[in-house]
User: Fold this.
Amino acid sequence: MTRLSTHDAIIIGAGPAGTSVALTLARRGWAVAIVEKRLFPRRKVCGEYISASNLALLDRLEIGDAWRASAGPQIRRVGFFSGNTRVEAAMPPARAGRCADDGFGRALGRDVLDTLLLQAACSAGAEIFQPFWPVAIDRDGDMQTVRIQASNVSDEHTMLRAPVIVAAHGSWEPGPLPSQLAKTSRPSDLLGFKAHFIGSSLATDLMPLLVFPGGYGGMVFADHGRLSISCCIRRDVLARLRGNRLPEQDGPKENGHLSAADAVCRHLMSSCRGVSDVLEGARLDGPWLAAGPIRPGIRACYERDIFRVGNAAGESHPIIAEGISMALQSGWLLASELGGAPTGQAGREAAGRRYEATWRGLFSTRVYAAAGIARLAFCPGGPALMRVAVRNLPQALTLGAHLSGKTRRVPGFG
Ligand SMILES: Cc1cc2nc3c(=O)[nH]c(=O)nc-3n(C[C@H](O)[C@H](O)[C@H](O)COP(=O)(O)OP(=O)(O)OC[C@H]3O[C@@H](n4cnc5c(N)ncnc54)[C@H](O)[C@@H]3O)c2cc1C
Assistant:
């Protein structure tokens, strides 16, 4: 059985990028459909920190107050934990927004944030198809049709038609859509891990960067006293850690090897003194999550008649914790271009070109800056060099936060 439904725009994926574009278009009176394959609330591999530069945008999306009420403490210091080194420096404040307290970023669990954004999109009139995923996109004159289904075995399909298709499905999962990236499996691939802990002793206003052999990560307090700890680790390093288990090591095992999450956790604790110190006496809240490989880089923002936002358009190494900002802001930028564009193919193409130019102007520097820092963290002797540099010049951490876009205003917000 097939159902047919026509909209002005179909958004694939309900992360911050998809809901930002959907909310903005729906508030402008567009008929919007969102297709999301997972049920919410769901947890996600992410450090969950959001820079203060997004607060005016969250207010415009009308979730600013809910975000302020739920998010964790203000992050006023940036840190660096590697080996036995622990260095701290001031987080540069963003220009204060509507409230005097708006100058510093905070973290909010993705189970909470993404649900908040999706509920707001639904209230604004977006039609939500969840859990559904697209199996094919076809051109149909000036329209495109997206065939979606609720499960792999179901022969019930829904056909969605719209002139505008937005890929907001992230970049970590391969699939049949032209906007999805091909699967990779290279030793240098970076796999993402994340967990929440309760009862940790990290200072509540500090967000340390973690640098350890084969990877990097971060820690920050999110909502409800949850410490969010996340990291990326090379595939080959993880394989070695799992295989090289010492006989006396206990822990969950898969096929005689240490589980990936257990290997990552032990590696973090043994290679970053700061991690083992703050996690002493803390308890895991829910399981470790894994995702990836991540796909840092800049991609086309508009290709084969599909617009891309968030990670689908481009991704910085999470070493700078700016992916949610880029997702929210790119969704807003695209919706602003589309909202004012004439209808028809020529209007969409012109909007696509303008959106891509603004995207590159706003985000390219942070993508390249993050790639440079990540390259240093991975090169032989890199972590040791970073330790010496940061110990001698802690202000480098403040400068790094500036360069990563944490204080940069979104165009159109004064
Ligand atoms: C270890 C780690 C730590 C990080 N820490 C931070 C941080 O502290 N701060 C920060 O700003 N960024 C951080 N990031 C980056 C951030 O998580 C991403 O950049 C951000 O989630 C991108 O948002 P998005 O909306 O583009 O995609 P996503 O958040 O990935 O959302 C995509 C959505 O699409 C859905 N989807 C996927 N495929 C399909 C499909 N075929 N059909 C339908 N739905 C689909 C998914 O279920 C998901 O809900 C981190 C990343 C990693 C790996």
Summary: Residues 12-18, 35-38, 45-49, 133-134, 168-170, 173, 175, 192, 194, 230-232, 294, 310-311, 315, 318, 321-325, 327 surround flavin-adenine dinucleotide (CB under 6 Å). Residues 345-378 form the longest helix (34 residues). The chain has eleven helices and 24 strands.
